[in-house]
Amino acid sequence: MRIDLHTHSSVSDGTDTPADLVAAAAAAGLDVVALTDHDTTDGWAAARAACPPGLVLVPGMELSCRWFPADDRPISVHLLAYLFDPDAPELAAERARLRAERLTRGERMVTALAADGFPVSWAAIVARSGGGVVGRPHVARALVEAGVVGSVDEAFAGLLHHTSPYYVAKADTDVLDGIALVRAAGGVPVFAHGLARSRGRVVGDDALAAMAGAGLLGLEVDHPDHADADRAHLRSLAADLGLLATGSSDYHGTNKRTPIAACTTDPGQYERLLTLGSGSAPSAG
Ligand code: AMP
Ligand code: ZN
Ligand code: FE
Ligand code: FE
Predict the structure, then answer these.
(1) Could you please report the per-residue DSSP string of 55-123?
(2) Atom 3, ligand 1: which residue's CA is nearest?
(3) pLDDT digits (tens, 9 = 90+) for 62-74
(4) What pTM, to 2 d.p., does this model score?
(5) Pocket around ligand 1: residues whose beta carbon is below 6 Å from it?
(6) 101 Cα: distance to centroid of ligand 2 (angstroms)
């Protein structure tokens, strides 16, 4: 059984439509795929409708969050959520707030780039997103298409990097609140790519223990951005804290070079995850 629990469609910052994404999952030989777009459940219905025979679709999301260290600036972190009730009002309101935050922040970044002569337009970027959740990958593609950079990676390494003067932070959810919101909605919160050091500062073990105390149920252990030593550390921490250990590709279509199913989840861990979620159900094609 091959299980990939973290993918993005064009409903957020991936390039496959939800229907293309479930087709790609089946073509890659997956038995289970979770759709985890940033801050939205808008892709669930289309993915379910297109789910091919033999594939199980797990409804999910990746919530944009922050960890607040006692003595330092907040650290940007991501919280995966599975099998939650999409109509739970508090979580739905928080997702809506985050999407609005993304629009304000994206517009500020693009306006600053344009003011300095980079040929990018916020209106064009929003139009291209087709009403989906806008993120830096959309800005990166616009910079590639304008010939400013040669690739999305180059945009992320320079103009869009979190140390760039054009970078604008978002007022993301306190991750402890995010965990509580997901649990209140019957969902399973799993801390995403916790030691992906290339993305910036990462949280310490104290933070992971605090999250476990607040109701976190899993750690994403196998992820393309995790070094082997960090995977081993997270795996032992998950065992110590009684948390699920998951593995996933974080597929974004052609916005990233990682193929779908690049990392996968152990079937026993997946079975445990199914017993922990009660707000929505997987669907079979
Ligand atoms: P944002 O949520 O708008 O801050 O943008 C972050 C998103 O960009 C995350 O989903 C990352 O997976 C994605 N990302 C980070 N680095 C890269 C990269 N080098 N190429 C493509 N996408 C990236
Ligand atoms: Zn993304
Ligand atoms: Fe993420
Ligand atoms: Fe992701």
Answers:
(1) -EEEEEEEEEEEE--TTS--EEEEEEEES--TT-HHHHHHHHHHHHHHHHHHHHHHHHHHHTT----HH
(2) 135
(3) 999 999 999 999 9
(4) 0.97
(5) 13, 38, 135-137, 152-153, 156, 252, 255-256
(6) 15
